[in-house]
Design goal:
Elements (H helix, E strand, L loop, with lengths): L3 E3 L15 H12 L2 E5 L3 E2 L12 E2 L6 H13 L4 E6 L7 H4 L4 E2 L14 E2 L2 H21 L3 E4 L6 H6 L14
Parallel strand pairs: 1-2, 2-5, 3-4, 3-5, 5-8, 6-7
Length: 177
Protein backbone atom coordinates (compact mmCIF):
# COMPACT_ATOMS: atom_id res chain seq x y z
CA UNK A 1 0.00 0.00 0.00
CA UNK A 2 2.76 2.48 0.79
CA UNK A 3 4.17 2.39 -2.74
CA UNK A 4 1.60 4.84 -4.10
CA UNK A 5 2.09 8.59 -3.84
CA UNK A 6 -0.89 10.75 -4.59
CA UNK A 7 0.50 13.75 -6.48
CA UNK A 8 -0.88 17.26 -6.24
CA UNK A 9 -3.80 18.24 -8.47
CA UNK A 10 -6.39 21.00 -8.46
CA UNK A 11 -9.61 19.61 -7.03
CA UNK A 12 -11.77 22.76 -6.97
CA UNK A 13 -13.25 21.77 -3.60
CA UNK A 14 -12.82 24.85 -1.44
CA UNK A 15 -15.10 27.69 -0.47
CA UNK A 16 -14.60 31.29 -1.59
CA UNK A 17 -11.97 31.79 1.14
CA UNK A 18 -9.96 28.72 0.17
CA UNK A 19 -11.21 26.57 3.06
CA UNK A 20 -11.38 22.87 2.14
CA UNK A 21 -14.92 21.55 1.98
CA UNK A 22 -16.17 18.21 3.27
CA UNK A 23 -15.93 16.65 -0.19
CA UNK A 24 -12.21 17.47 -0.37
CA UNK A 25 -11.64 16.14 3.14
CA UNK A 26 -13.37 12.86 2.22
CA UNK A 27 -11.36 12.68 -1.02
CA UNK A 28 -8.04 12.86 0.84
CA UNK A 29 -9.32 10.48 3.51
CA UNK A 30 -10.32 7.98 0.82
CA UNK A 31 -6.87 8.16 -0.79
CA UNK A 32 -5.42 7.21 2.59
CA UNK A 33 -7.93 4.41 3.13
CA UNK A 34 -7.16 3.15 -0.37
CA UNK A 35 -3.51 2.63 0.52
CA UNK A 36 -1.70 5.79 -0.58
CA UNK A 37 1.67 5.95 1.13
CA UNK A 38 1.85 9.73 0.86
CA UNK A 39 -0.67 12.37 -0.17
CA UNK A 40 0.10 15.83 -1.56
CA UNK A 41 -2.58 18.47 -1.48
CA UNK A 42 -3.17 20.57 -4.57
CA UNK A 43 -1.53 23.97 -4.70
CA UNK A 44 -2.57 26.19 -1.79
CA UNK A 45 -1.93 29.90 -2.26
CA UNK A 46 0.29 31.55 0.34
CA UNK A 47 -1.43 34.92 -0.14
CA UNK A 48 -4.51 36.43 -1.76
CA UNK A 49 -2.22 38.00 -4.38
CA UNK A 50 -0.81 34.55 -5.19
CA UNK A 51 -4.21 32.92 -5.73
CA UNK A 52 -4.59 31.38 -9.17
CA UNK A 53 -7.79 31.78 -11.17
CA UNK A 54 -8.80 28.12 -11.03
CA UNK A 55 -12.25 27.41 -9.61
CA UNK A 56 -12.47 27.15 -5.80
CA UNK A 57 -8.73 27.38 -5.15
CA UNK A 58 -7.48 26.16 -1.77
CA UNK A 59 -5.62 28.66 0.38
CA UNK A 60 -3.32 28.66 3.41
CA UNK A 61 -2.96 32.42 3.76
CA UNK A 62 -4.75 32.88 7.07
CA UNK A 63 -4.59 31.41 10.56
CA UNK A 64 -8.38 31.07 10.34
CA UNK A 65 -7.82 28.19 7.89
CA UNK A 66 -5.67 26.14 10.29
CA UNK A 67 -8.63 24.31 11.95
CA UNK A 68 -10.02 23.21 8.57
CA UNK A 69 -6.63 21.93 7.42
CA UNK A 70 -6.18 20.26 10.83
CA UNK A 71 -9.41 18.34 10.15
CA UNK A 72 -7.93 17.20 6.82
CA UNK A 73 -4.67 16.09 8.45
CA UNK A 74 -6.37 14.36 11.37
CA UNK A 75 -8.66 12.34 9.13
CA UNK A 76 -5.89 11.40 6.69
CA UNK A 77 -3.62 10.36 9.57
CA UNK A 78 -6.42 8.34 11.17
CA UNK A 79 -6.81 6.53 7.84
CA UNK A 80 -3.11 5.67 7.89
CA UNK A 81 -1.25 8.05 5.59
CA UNK A 82 1.02 11.08 5.84
CA UNK A 83 0.04 14.26 4.00
CA UNK A 84 2.12 17.13 2.63
CA UNK A 85 0.90 20.66 1.89
CA UNK A 86 1.83 22.02 -1.52
CA UNK A 87 2.17 25.81 -1.34
CA UNK A 88 2.70 28.36 -4.10
CA UNK A 89 2.23 31.85 -5.50
CA UNK A 90 0.93 32.21 -9.05
CA UNK A 91 2.86 35.39 -9.82
CA UNK A 92 1.77 36.68 -13.21
CA UNK A 93 -0.47 33.67 -13.92
CA UNK A 94 -3.59 35.15 -12.39
CA UNK A 95 -5.93 38.09 -12.81
CA UNK A 96 -6.67 41.09 -10.61
CA UNK A 97 -10.39 40.29 -10.90
CA UNK A 98 -9.64 36.99 -9.11
CA UNK A 99 -7.26 38.26 -6.42
CA UNK A 100 -8.42 41.84 -5.98
CA UNK A 101 -4.74 42.80 -6.02
CA UNK A 102 -2.21 43.78 -8.66
CA UNK A 103 -0.62 40.98 -10.66
CA UNK A 104 3.10 40.68 -9.93
CA UNK A 105 6.15 39.05 -11.49
CA UNK A 106 9.95 39.29 -11.47
CA UNK A 107 9.77 41.52 -14.58
CA UNK A 108 6.98 43.46 -16.31
CA UNK A 109 6.50 40.87 -19.07
CA UNK A 110 3.07 39.61 -20.06
CA UNK A 111 2.31 35.96 -19.54
CA UNK A 112 1.42 33.93 -22.64
CA UNK A 113 -1.86 32.79 -21.03
CA UNK A 114 -2.71 35.95 -19.08
CA UNK A 115 -1.63 38.43 -21.72
CA UNK A 116 -4.17 41.15 -20.90
CA UNK A 117 -2.09 42.46 -17.98
CA UNK A 118 1.47 43.65 -17.80
CA UNK A 119 2.46 42.52 -14.30
CA UNK A 120 3.98 44.83 -11.74
CA UNK A 121 7.74 44.24 -11.37
CA UNK A 122 8.32 43.12 -7.81
CA UNK A 123 10.45 45.42 -5.69
CA UNK A 124 12.93 43.89 -3.28
CA UNK A 125 10.71 44.57 -0.25
CA UNK A 126 7.77 42.89 -2.05
CA UNK A 127 9.92 39.82 -2.77
CA UNK A 128 10.76 39.68 0.94
CA UNK A 129 7.05 39.93 1.82
CA UNK A 130 6.26 37.01 -0.49
CA UNK A 131 9.12 35.03 1.07
CA UNK A 132 7.56 35.78 4.46
CA UNK A 133 4.17 34.63 3.09
CA UNK A 134 5.74 31.27 2.18
CA UNK A 135 7.28 30.96 5.66
CA UNK A 136 3.95 31.83 7.33
CA UNK A 137 2.11 29.32 5.13
CA UNK A 138 4.63 26.60 6.03
CA UNK A 139 4.16 27.38 9.73
CA UNK A 140 0.38 27.20 9.32
CA UNK A 141 0.82 23.81 7.63
CA UNK A 142 2.92 22.61 10.56
CA UNK A 143 0.31 23.85 13.06
CA UNK A 144 -2.42 22.08 11.09
CA UNK A 145 -0.52 18.81 11.33
CA UNK A 146 0.90 18.36 7.84
CA UNK A 147 3.88 16.02 7.70
CA UNK A 148 5.78 18.21 5.27
CA UNK A 149 5.57 21.06 2.79
CA UNK A 150 6.31 21.11 -0.92
CA UNK A 151 7.00 24.47 -2.55
CA UNK A 152 5.39 24.45 -5.98
CA UNK A 153 7.75 26.24 -8.37
CA UNK A 154 6.74 24.76 -11.72
CA UNK A 155 3.81 25.24 -14.05
CA UNK A 156 5.14 28.72 -14.66
CA UNK A 157 4.11 30.05 -11.26
CA UNK A 158 6.24 32.62 -9.41
CA UNK A 159 9.11 30.33 -8.43
CA UNK A 160 9.63 29.22 -12.01
CA UNK A 161 9.12 32.77 -13.27
CA UNK A 162 12.18 33.83 -11.29
CA UNK A 163 14.18 30.98 -12.86
CA UNK A 164 13.06 31.66 -16.45
CA UNK A 165 14.98 33.91 -18.83
CA UNK A 166 11.71 34.61 -20.67
CA UNK A 167 9.96 35.86 -17.52
CA UNK A 168 12.87 37.36 -15.59
CA UNK A 169 15.10 39.96 -17.21
CA UNK A 170 16.20 41.55 -13.95
CA UNK A 171 19.81 42.70 -13.57
CA UNK A 172 19.86 42.63 -9.77
CA UNK A 173 20.47 39.74 -7.37
CA UNK A 174 17.05 38.29 -8.30
CA UNK A 175 17.87 37.93 -11.98
CA UNK A 176 20.70 37.23 -14.40
CA UNK A 177 22.02 33.78 -15.15
Amino acid sequence: PSRIIRSATHEGMADENGKPDEKLIRTFENYAKGGAGLIFTGYMAVSQQGKCPLYNMTMINSDELIPAWKEVCDRVHAAGAPIFAQIAHSGRQTRKKVTGEKTVAPSPIRDFLYWETVPHKLREKEIHRITDDFAAAALRAKKAGFDGVEIHSVGYYLGQQFLSSTANIRKDEYGGS
